[in-house]
Amino acid sequence: MNRHSPLPNRGNGGQTGDVHPLIEVPALDRLLRRQTPVVLLDVRWHLAGPPGVESYRRGHLPGAVFVDLDRDVAGPPGPGGRHPLPEPVVFEAAMRRAGVTADSLVVAYDDADAMSAARVWWSLRYFGHDRVRVLDGGFRAWTEAGLPVSTTEPDVKPGGFIAHPGRLPVLDAEGAAELATAGVLLDARAAARYRGEEEPVDPVAGHIPGARNAPTSGNVGVDGRFLPPELLRERFAQLGATDALDVGAYCGSGVTAAHEILALNLAGIPAALYVGSWSDWVTNPTNPVATGDN
């Protein structure tokens, strides 16, 4: 992998072309009532369990297909981290099973805050499919609106999705280290993990030297919906991240950092994802580790 692949053009107001990365519950409901073809992906996932498929089976948006983040959206844990990029053929097969074709409008959702749905949004775009949106507020917003849920698994016609990897910028460890000094590298984990006060998952606590802490929880409100773009721009500007600089993001294993990429996108700031993130960084004992607030 290159130190980092080229970042998108700055100042482009986002990286999604004509497709806004979010969709609100009323807008999705209207599309479904009109029988507009939409591929719904249920990507509920919980780091410490229970398995997301259990939530899916208890109830999901009518017509939604469950996508397993660990199996379908990430490769096996190993030297590249806990959630490395999947092989293109694996991701392609998963999206085909879900019914995704070249022209499908895909809507991904999770419980509420898009922490796992954003990884699917990012992955589809990385593999060349731009017509993908995240349901803002997720399953909770849908049910709070009094809309129907289903326990029936749909009979899906396989799609013809073809994976074309490399359509979004990514970082490896060397590129992340460089960006932490030459640009802005955001650490999307909770502050205690960033400072090295606790580390519940990985064997080493701390952060990449020069990275700035921007917990993903600050991208959304208490309802799980993303903050307005102007507030996100203000938040990232306070951290030094603007569309005038090269920006990247990492987390523990590249899942919640995709949420940071989505939030940056909403703010009009192109950014690269360090997919391996901290779980990849600490596999190399020569990589330096910082603790505290700096």
Automatic annotation (TrEMBL):
PROSITE patterns: RHODANESE_1, RHODANESE_3. SUPFAM superfamilies: Rhodanese/Cell cycle control phosphatase. Pfam families: Rhodanese (PF00581). SMART domains: RHOD. It comes from the Bacteria. Keywords: Repeat, Transferase. The keyword Transferase applies. Residues 34-151, 184-290 form the Rhodanese domain. Residues 1-20 are annotated as: Disordered. InterPro entries: Rhodanese-like_dom, Rhodanese-like_dom_sf, Thiosulphate_STrfase_CS, TST/MPST-like. The keyword ATP-binding does not apply. GO terms for molecular function: thiosulfate-cyanide sulfurtransferase activity. This is Sulfurtransferase. It comes from Actinomadura darangshiensis. The lineage of its organism: Bacteria, Bacillati, Actinomycetota, Actinomycetes, Streptosporangiales.
